[in-house]
Specification:
The protein has helices at 10-23, 33-44, 50-63, 71-79, 93-110, 129-139, 150-167, and strands spanning 69-70, 119-120. The protein is mainly alpha-helical and 177 residues long. Strands 1-2 form a two-stranded parallel ribbon.
Amino acid sequence: MPKPLSEHSIDDLKRLAVNYRAAGVTEGKHFTLADIMREIDRRQGGALTLDNLTSIIATSCLTAPERKVSYRELYLAMHGQPPAQGFVGNGWRIPLTSKLRELSELCHAHGWPLISILVVDNKTRRLTTDTETAFYHDWKDKYPIKAVNAEKWCQQMTEQALEFVRRHPGSFGPLAA
């Protein structure tokens, strides 16, 4: 009988996650990648946990007129205030972007659509071309959507994510195991 995830060191958990990703699997003999990621997040997440992030995205998208949430709105919802004035560039987005990547991996591990695709540019209220391209190249083989290009693929994934959020309101905290 393997020891529970809660008894593994954080380094062991990270190694397990890397090994799962390298092997291209979401389930192992004893643990799922989603369970490993949740345990890492539980220990290191602070206020920016995947549970919080997913709940805020889902709630915001259900109430927003265009059914999307901007990076700035997400930051505001998580911190209760906008990024500090004078913050150089979009540096405040770096930890958020990293967490959104983890959320994408967790969604894939659960077999969910990529909920993180619902977070859009502050000004245009759309995914940027670079973001569309990154989503497409990173995920097209794992989510077989028939689309002729990155823009169309992202449109279809966005529709799937919105439908998923509509069907499962309030079921993300803690993330559905």
